[in-house]
Design brief:
Layout lengths: L14 E3 L9 E5 L1 H6 L4 H5 L1 H4 L12 E3 L2 E4 L2 E5 L5 E8 L5 E7 L14 E2 H16 L6 E7 L3 E3 L3 E11 L5 H10 L4 H12 L9 H23 L1 E2 L21 E2 L23 H13 L12 H12 L2 H17 L8 H14 L4 H9 L3 H6 L4 H15 L4 H11 L7 H11 L5 H11 L31
Antiparallel strand pairs: 1-3, 2-9, 4-5, 6-7, 7-11, 8-11, 9-11, 10-11, 12-13
Helix pairs in contact: 4-16, 4-17, 7-8, 7-9, 7-10, 10-15, 11-14, 16-17
This protein binds adenosine monophosphate and magnesium ion.
Adenosine monophosphate (AMP) binds next to loops.
Length: about 475
């Protein structure tokens, strides 16, 4: 590994050095060899992956640390948070010379653990491991993980579960909440911290007239693009608190996430989200709200030659990029999923008509885009109660495509519609087996989700392609992790 230990160069008030505390009976869960290669892991590191991913081996080049941050949780100021169970154990260069954080989740107590035990359970580790892998393969900017380990140590949640650790990778673990903490508790650090964020993550902004405004605009645009990806793929993050959003716009800390199955935009996947703040359909507006809260923290960085009120206005103008960026990416992506030409004036309307059918008929989002792609129109229609609504959509759809190069549109469709997402019941099956020390289903899903846009008949099971029948009880995803 080639180290680039840059976070420890920040003011020490921003973190606490802390060694991981290994679990009893740590043992292999799953290893992502391809990612380890991408991160230039040596053969020796690969042989020792269980030790590294269970906190037994730490690196001389990097003293592990827990980061402090703050946040707004479910819309309320939550004060100081900080990583209560995750340690930054290295920053390394990948094959493209990009700096990547190695972050060990479930590594024991830190000064920021509050009431928690510093641990993660196997159930939530498998969910995050497979979802991070799936999102990356789907082309959604996201954290990922090199591997996870399990143990024989019991960890108490609603019931006693197995403790586990996961070695997460991300281009950053700097959250919007980092700025909130600094602004609230150590405002003297704000200027230098912001400067470092720009140098590390947005160096192209350094040469602009107002680097801070350019930086803010980029963070806003990247977040909008990330959320457009989520909407297109049918992903609901579940806990979009400001401490769970990264400044790079890569998906982070998705605990009780869900991949949408039947198209219910107001579906609540996180059962502690009583008011439905973080439903699928709310994600764009919550992203906007989080960024608005975040921008307040840049107000003190007003340059001397600019009046405060004007500076505030300029910051507010940065946020005006959110909606057009989101809409541009979302609309373009939706047209691609539909195989409709981007320039045609009726393409977006037609796509919305399809979504309305999915919603009123409670059809599966992923499965029915694939049926559309395969021109299995009868299968969609058979699942509809209102055949006329579908026929009228289909007439419009075929009419728009009539005079187009459909070969090219179909090719774009195939690259935009996954056959496989991580349905809750798929993850659940893998977890139940893994809790009995059988990781074969984790391995199968890992392989299947590596190539979500390719049909893999030799690997897939019928239940990977559809939601559970509607008369079966939905799997309740516990938000404890
Ligand atoms: P989350 O909602 O999982 O992002 O967690 C919110 C905050 O609580 C973060 O600062 C976490 O590090 C912390 N936290 C969550 N679970 C635990 C735990 N079991 N032990 C200690 N801290 C935790
Ligand atoms: Mg978090």
């Amino acid at each position: 590994m080639q180290f680039n230990a840059r976070y420890p160069s920040l003011n020490p008030k921003l973190f606490h050095h802390q060694a991981p505390k290994p679990l009893i009976g740590a043992k292999a869960g799953h290893f992502n060899a391809e990612l380890a290669n991408q991160l230039n892991w040596s053969d020796e590191d690969k042989v020792q992956w269980v030790e590294i991913c269970s906190g037994q081996k730490i690196f001389e080049e990097f003293e592990p640390l827990a980061m402090v941050y703050a946040g707004h949780q479910f819309g309320q100021w939550a004060g100081q948070l900080g990583d209560g169970r995750g340690l930054l154990i290295a920053q390394i260069l990948d094959k493209n010379q990009k700096t990547i954080d190695l972050h060990l989740k479930g590594a024991g107590l830190t000064p920021y653990s509050r009431m928690g035990d510093g641990r993660a359970v196997l159930r939530s580790v498998i969910r995050e491991y497979l979802a991070g892998h799936a999102l990356n393969a789907l082309g959604v900017p996201s954290s990922n993980a090199v591997g996870f380990t399990t143990s024989t140590q019991g960890v108490q949640r609603e019931k006693l579960e197995l403790g586990a650790m996961m070695l997460r990778t991300s281009d950053s673990h700097i959250r919007l909440g980092h700025f909130e903490w600094i602004n609230q508790y150590q405002p003297d650090l704000l200027k230098e911290f912001t400067q470092k964020c720009i140098e590390w993550h947005y160096s192209e902004c350094l040469d602009t007239e107002q680097p801070i405004l350019a930086f803010a605009t980029k963070v806003i645009q990247n977040t909008a693009i990330m959320i457009s990806h989520w909407q297109l793929i049918g992903f609901a993050h579940g806990v979009m608190n400001t401490d769970n959003l990264n400044i790079t716009g890569s998906t982070l800390d998705f605990g009780p996430y869900g991949f949408l199955e039947r198209f219910r935009p107001n579906w609540i996947n996180n059962h502690s989200d009583h008011q439905g703040r973080y439903t699928y359909q709310q994600q764009p507006s919550i992203g906007h709200w989080n960024l608005w809260m975040w921008l307040n923290n840049l107000v003190p960085l007003c340059p001397e030659n600019i009046e405060k009120e004007i500076w505030k206005e300029q910051l507010a103008q940065c946020l005006e990029h959110f909606e057009p960026t989101f809409l541009e990416h979302y609309q373009q992506g939706l047209k691609q999923k539909m195989g409709l030409p981007s320039f045609h004036k009726d393409s977006f309307d037609c796509a919305m008509a399809f979504l309305r059918i999915l919603q009123t008929e409670q059809l599966d989002y992923t499965q029915n885009f694939i049926r559309l792609q395969n021109k299995e129109y009868e299968l969609i229609k058979d699942d509809c109660l209102d055949h006329r609504q579908f026929e009228s959509f289909l007439a419009q759809y075929e009419n728009i495509r009539k005079h187009q190069d459909t070969d090219e549109l179909d090719q774009i469709m195939r690259a935009s519609n996954p056959h496989y997402i991580l349905r809750n019941h798929m993850a659940q099956k893998a977890i139940e087996l893994a809790e009995r020390n059988d990781f074969s289903e984790v391995e199968r899903l890992f392989k299947l989700l590596s190539h979500p846009f390719q049909k893999q008949p030799e690997l897939e099971k019928p239940e990977d392609l559809a939601p559970l029948p509607s008369d079966q009880p939905e799997i309740m995803v516990s938000c404890s992790s």
